[in-house]
Every structure is written in C-alpha cells, then in structure tokens.
C-alpha cells in the first residue's frame, strides 16, 4: 500500500495544505449540494468534544437549551430592515412543500433572531420573566459562493444564544459574559490565544448595535473570527413586540442579545496548530489523545496486541481517550504517519523488545524531545499530566507565534508589511471610507478594537486624521 | 393570579387533554410555519436526557456519530423507486438559493438513506471497511397535513443509524441490535413497556426488506410506534453502488440497515404516564426529579427558602436533579398544582413548622401513599432509592395497564371490542387486502408480529383463511 499521507507544505500553498489535510485526515467530505460538507466521524467527534465543553459553560451560567423551527416565513426577516438586507443574498428558500406551491415561501434559517423574537414576545409579559436566557444547538444555511470546509460552508452547525433583558446594562453584561465564555473555550480547550474586542461599525452583525468578536491568528498570519456576541439594543424587540411590564407597571421594550460559535472553530484548530505532517490536536479536543501501535508479526504481534489492549484499558480507566491501532496488515511506519497526519497528541509504540523490558516508546506529536522510553506500568498514572503539558505547550507556542507576528505600526509602509505576514496594531480614524480604502489597498480589515488595548491617541495610519477608539485597532487579512 | 392548571379530563377528550397539556406544561409552542413546533426548555431538557441515554448506548455498541447535509438533490431520492414513492408527498423543496433559481431543486431531508448511501459508496472499498456503523443526530422535515405536537410535526428531531455490512446475517444482527437498544431505552428510561415485533409488508419503511418496531400502548388504548429498525437488503446498495471487495477478491454488494428514534418518544412518555392533573415524568427523564417548595412569608419565608436551597444543594451533590421554587409571590397551592401539571416525580414542602421539627413533607406525583413527613437530614441519602422505586412503579403500572387492555381474540366481534379500548391479539391471513378491510371496518392496523409471541396457527380473525406468521399479530388503533 502506497503511503498517501503527504500534503502540500504550508509554506508552499497554505490553502492547498488545508484543503488536502481536511480530506486526508478524514475530517470531512464534500456534500452533493453546492458548498455543503459531510462531517465524518473523526471530525464530528472533535465537534462533540467542543460542544460538550461549551454546552456545560452555557448551562452553568443559567441558560437553557431549546429548539426553534428550521423553516421561517420570509416575512419575518423583513421586519428588521438591516437584518433582511444582511441575509437576503444568502438565503435558501422553500417554495414547494407537500406537493404544492406554498402561499408564502419559507426560508431555511440563516440564524434564528426572528423566529425566537416572535416567541419571546409570546413568553415574556412581566419583569419577573426576565432575563430570558435561551440557547439553541442547530444547523443553519447561508448560501456560499466560495465554500471552504469548516470555514465557509452552505450549511454549518452552531449554537446560538438568544437572551432578553430589562435594560441595556443587563443586556451588555450578558453580551460580555458570552464573549468571556468563548474566550475561555478558545484558550483553555482549543489552545487558541484569541484576542477579544469590538467590531467597528462596518463589521457589525446585521441588526446589532454593538458586535464583539474573538479573533485567532492562523499559521499563515491571517485572522479567523471564531465567535461573536451581539448587543441588539431594542432593534429586534421593536420589530417583534418584545415588551414587559416593569415593577412600576409601565410597558417597556426588552433589550436583546445573540451570540454564536460554530463548526468554523474546527477550522481554527486546524490552522492554529497544524504543520506539514498534518493535524496537531489539543488533547482536550482530540478524539484519541493517545494511540497505541503494537508492532511485530505472528505470535509476537499477538502478544504486543494483547499488551496494547491491556494498556488502553488502563488508560481509559485513568480518564484518557486511548485507541489501539490493530491494523496489522499495515507497516508500523505507515501507521505512525497516519496518526501524525490525524494529529494524535501522544503515540505509544509497543514492540516485542519493549514488552520484554516492560517499557513503551512515547512520541509526542510536537515539541523538542525525541522519542522517550517509559516504564509500561507507570504510563496510565503519568498520562494525564503529559497531556496537560502538551495542551499548555500548544497554547504557549500559538501565543508566541501570534505575538511575534503582531506589530504596532505608525506608518503605512510598516502597516502593509505587517499585514503581509500577520497583524498590524494601528491607530485609525474610524471612518468607513478609510476602512474601505485600506481594504482595497492592503486587503486588510479591522479585526477588532481589543478590549485590553492600552489607551492611546494620535493620527490615523492611513489618512492622518485624528484617531478614534482611544486605542490601537487590530488589522489583518482574514478568512 | 387565577389557577390556570386545569386540563380537559382524559376520559372526556383524550386529544384535547394532550393538546392542552403540552402547551400548559410549557413543553412546546406552535411554530409559525405549518405543523412546526418550538420545543421549550422544559421539553428540550427531556429530549436531552433521552438523547444522552440513547447516545451512550449507540456509542457503546461501536457506532460513531457523523453529520450529513440537510439539503439533498432531488435526483438522489429517485434512485430507489420505493423510497421516492414513499416520501414524495411529504417533501419540502428548495428551488431558490443565493438569489437565483437552482438548476436542480434540493429537498430538505425527510431521512438520510440516500445521501449517506452516496457517501458509503465513496468510503467503502474493502471488506476491512465493514461493518461501517454510523449514526446521526439531526432534524428532518416531512410535510404534515394533520400535525400533532411531538407525534406528527413537519420538522422533528431524531437520530438515524445507518450501517453497511458484508452479508445479510451481519446486517440482520445489527437490525435486531438497534431494536434491542430501543426496547431497553423505552422500558428502562421512559418506563414504557413496549412490544417489539416485525411490521407486516404493508407497514414497511419505503425501500426496506424487513421493518421492526417497538409499540407502546397509550392511556387511551391506542398504539404509538416509538422506534423502528430496518433491514434494507441490498436495495440501497444497488441504487448507490455500495460495493466492497471480499477477502476472496470478489466485488460484492453491501447489505445496509437504518433505524431511528425521534422526539415522538416524548409524546409517548406523556400519553403513557400522564393523568388528569397533568404530566407524570419518569425520574430518569425528568428535568427536575425533585422540586422543593419553601412556604411562609416574610422572615419565616426567608428561613424556609434558605433551608430549601441548602437541601437542593445536598440533593444535587447526591446526584439528584433538584429545583427550588422560589416564586414567593405565588401561593403554595398554586405552586403544588403547577409542579403536578409539569409532572415532577417528587415534591418536598418545607414550611416553618417542618423546619422547627427538622422534617420535610414529601408528596409523590402518583401512587397510593399520601403525604409523608421525612427527617430533613436523611432526605439526600434516601432520595435516589425513592426515585428508583417511583421509576419502577411507573413501569409496573404501565405494564399492568397494557396487559389488562390486550385481549387474545378469536371472533370478529371480540376483535372490534378489543381494539375499541386497547389491543387485539389475533391470527391473520397476512393478505394486504384483508388488512385494508380490517382498517376500513375497525380503524385498526397490524401494529406488529411480536418477537416473543407463542407459536400458534389457525384461521384469520377477519376472513377465515389460514393464518400466516405462525403466531398472533398485535392489532390496534394508532397515532
């Protein structure tokens, strides 16, 4: 069997590297309809693990899951003017059902603000009903002309939080809480050191008053928006009549929020940690944290296979996701390459000589140390610590990479140089026309105004007008 | 505040009882598009708990979750003749997307055999790739003319297992394994004593060679099909070219299966256990297993509320899903009725006098015992046992109900009497025309040929021809 584990090097063509890798690592396949993807078991398990971490945090902060219909009357979207303008070009529309033409077409939800707004209006009457904290795990459809697996697909999976509050202050607290959850999951689970900040007016969600984002730097220096949280003000409440009676007996409009994180995050994991050998998965998201490869033929092979299974059982009992690669028909080298391609954090090789000496050979997917021989009996107890170290190593590595490629700039020349390989931190006038000019000339956009940026004012890096925002803005090319 | 907990009695109008209850218990609301439902947090939590139980069993038996696209080219459905015939009348069709008319319309999946078949054909080449054991959690759409919340809705949530095997024997083992999982989940988790059996030819899934089902008896005596498992033979493999090379080097067609359980099960739980006061939830599916109602006003109210919260924390630590009803503005009686309506298995009432004597009053949602006073300190340790007993009680009660209303019949008169209030066990000739005749005259259909039925032959209860199947068939009216 030919070894088909090679992918185009990142340095040669990052985009080809990505496209080849997601297919060869068996994360996805192409769906039959334009821009759709099939998420294969290895990719879906990654999503389930991410989902579990995020769902727990969403519930722990008082939100409840619910489910709203996929099909939404077209007229609902028109009730919020900016919303329909933003989403119209991307809609898939059901015009026929049950063998007949529908009186009113139904859109396949691109997001659920409208139908949830309609329900909030039914369910909320008193201040005692607030805050209403809902979340939904669902599929959404946005017609995609330039699809890219995980990053931009016609259908994707996500969670969308939707909440209603008595006033702006409470809704803004919620908006920032959701952003904090996303930052934590990205950093602690996906090992992506995202920058959290606010979008400029031109990059806001259709219908939002303020939009916040977490942005990760990919290994080609581009930015990936990995989660967003929106304060809607009373825009949707006004469009859908979401009112409540206050303690003082007055009828008031609610303030709403929405926030989402999607299967796009998996693309972020791939492009933050992967290398020319393939995926590198953070242990907390790896479907298999440890793969054991038994080596040897015939009777020897049977003995190492039995020992591998025993070790896997002890690792499982220690809370480690372990897998035995029992494909004896494939060479050890082929299997090693296969698990490197698929990004397994720790590989354990178990040959007849290892078994004789009660040891096992450990190879980390990344890092300075070469292979190490470990006493077999000690492996289950030490593995959680080894995995935690690997998780931290990935976060340190990604943080260093991001910091090296993030440059405070004061001139246009240094700006264009910085966005060629990473991010520029620049003062900006805040004018949409100047943003457009920058986009046209440098293919870069303001990714966010970082929450933790130091106070600074001066002149716009592009047009020289006085700076806005009171701090530097992160600019970069993006997905 | 008026007490709005009343529902029409079951005996008066079962259907009105059901429709009022699902709304008043806040399980669901109507969606804007015809026949769609919104699953509210209380209903969705029920589904999540069921999902967790089923998902664990599906994974433990070697299946992997994956995700396939929602939108399927219309031509895919036409490849399997029976399949398209069965589903055509129920399809929702996307004809426009991204602002343009599509060259080929896309159907919103009514089920995923076709798109998964296409992928299986890509992924399977050798006998080493078999069996391929996949499962998907997803929404599906089947246009519904007579919608009923949970039971028949235009969109519903389900899992669909899809597997491919080397031969008929292995595929049949899988078909029965899935049926066993469903039987176990229905019985042990939902406390529904289902009858497992095979569908007659006229009731088979569109495209299947054999269809198996689990059927539960609702409290109006009707049958609810609560899960099905299908052996497809090589029908889909032939339509989608799902081949493998055998160990002997020959190209062979795969044998496939599919099996599904849906949000319909929640309707089954409601109609198996509910009564005129409202829902009765089996503890293993109850969002709140125990609700604590603190009683008293002013300072006394504060003390009982604090004690209720402390007790809830200790119950949570003991693995019990506990909730404190802190709605002090509502009377105790209103709150008691509310939790009876919502089916909480155990209610704990905590008033000032209980607190003085370090006791709490326990009321079971159903059963012979009246209220009981329990020592407060002992409640957390004893609650798991009390809940397990209540779970068993519900299963025993439902089993007795089903058995009382299941009648072996030998004459047409006794047949029509039996299906008026429950199920008839009858010998049948197996002819579709005779099934149709029975349906027209008694509004009853063969629910299944039970797997564990005793061997028996004789003459058809309707037409007098020799019986088929070698055992009695379960007949009943159904949802």
Provide structural commentary.
2 copies of one chain form a homodimer. With 479 residues, chain A is an alpha+beta fold. Chain A folds into 3 domains: 14-273, Bira Bifunctional Protein, Domain 2 (BirA Bifunctional Protein, domain 2); 290-386, Anticodon-binding domain (Rossmann fold, 3-Layer(aba) Sandwich); 406-476, Translation Initiation Factor IF3. Helices cover 36% and strands 26% of the residues of chain A. The first copy, chain A, has 14 helices and 23 strands. An 11-stranded mixed sheet of chain A has the order 3-7-8-14-11-10-9-22-23-21-20, with helices on both faces. In chain A, helix 13 links the parallel strand 20 (406-408) and strand 21 (423-426). In chain A, helix 2 (41-60) crosses helix 6 (168-189) and helix 9 (298-317) crosses helix 12 (379-404). The first copy, chain A, is globular and about 80 Å long. The model of chain A has no long low-confidence stretch (mean pLDDT 96). Chains A and B meet through strand 2, helix 2, strand 3, strand 4 and strand 5 of A and strand 2, helix 2, strand 3, strand 4 and strand 5 of B. Strand 5 (92-97) of chain A pairs antiparallel with strand 5 (92-97) of chain B, so a sheet runs across the interface.
């Amino acid at each position: 069997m030919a070894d088909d584990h090679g992918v185009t090097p990142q340095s040669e063509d990052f985009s080809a590297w990505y496209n080849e890798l997601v297919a060869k690592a068996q994360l996805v396949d192409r769906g039959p309809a334009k821009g759709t993807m099939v998420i294969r078991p290895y990719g879906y398990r990654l999503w389930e693990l991410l989902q579990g971490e995020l769902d727990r945090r969403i519930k722990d902060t008082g939100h409840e899951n619910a489910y709203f219909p996929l099909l939404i009357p077209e007229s609902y979207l028109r009730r919020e003017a900016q919303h329909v303008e933003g989403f119209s070009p991307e809609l898939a529309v059901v015009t026929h059902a049950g063998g007949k033409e529908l009186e009113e077409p139904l859109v396949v939800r691109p997001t659920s603000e409208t139908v949830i707004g309609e329900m909030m209006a039914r369910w909320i009457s008193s201040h005692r009903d607030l805050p209403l904290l809902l979340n939904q795990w669902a599929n959404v459809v946005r017609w995609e002309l330039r699809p890219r697996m995980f990053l931009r697909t016609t259908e994707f999976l996500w969670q969308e939080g939707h909440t209603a509050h008595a006033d702006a202050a409470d809704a803004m607290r919620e908006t920032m809480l959701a952003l904090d959850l996303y930052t934590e999951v990205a950093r602690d689970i996906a090992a992506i050191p995202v920058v959290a900040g606010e979008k400029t007016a031109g990059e806001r969600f259709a219908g939002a008053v303020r939009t916040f984002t977490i942005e990760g730097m990919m290994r080609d220096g581009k930015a990936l928006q990995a989660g967003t949280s929106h304060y809607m003000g009373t825009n949707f409440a006004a469009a859908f009549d979401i009112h409540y009676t206050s303690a003082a007996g007055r009828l008031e409009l609610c303030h709403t929020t929405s926030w989402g994180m999607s299967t796009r995050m998996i693309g972020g994991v791939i492009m933050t940690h992967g290398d020319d050998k393939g995926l590198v998965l953070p242990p907390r998201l790896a479907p298999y944290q440890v793969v054991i490869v038994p080596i040897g033929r015939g009777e020897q092979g049977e003995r190492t296979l039995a020992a591998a299974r025993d070790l896997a059982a002890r690792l499982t009992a220690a809370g480690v996701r372990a897998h035995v690669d029992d494909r004896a028909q494939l060479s050890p080298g082929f299997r090693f390459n296969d698990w490197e391609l698929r990004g397994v954090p720790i590989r354990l090789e178990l040959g007849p000589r290892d078994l004789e000496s009660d040891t096992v050979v450990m190879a980390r997917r990344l890092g300075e140390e070469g292979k190490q021989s470990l006493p077999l009996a000690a492996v289950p107890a030490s593995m959680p610590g080894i995995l935690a170290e690997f998780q931290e190593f990935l976060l340190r590595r990604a943080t260093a990479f991001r910091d090296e490629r993030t440059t405070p700039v004061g001139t246009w020349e240094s700006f264009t140089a910085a966005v060629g390989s990473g991010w520029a931190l620049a003062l900006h006038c805040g004018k949409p026309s100047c943003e457009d000019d920058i986009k046209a000339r440098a293919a870069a956009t303001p990714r966010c105004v970082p929450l933790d940026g130091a106070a600074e004012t001066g002149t716009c890096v592009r047009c020289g007008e006085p700076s806005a925002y009171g701090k530097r803005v992160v600019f970069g090319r993006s997905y």
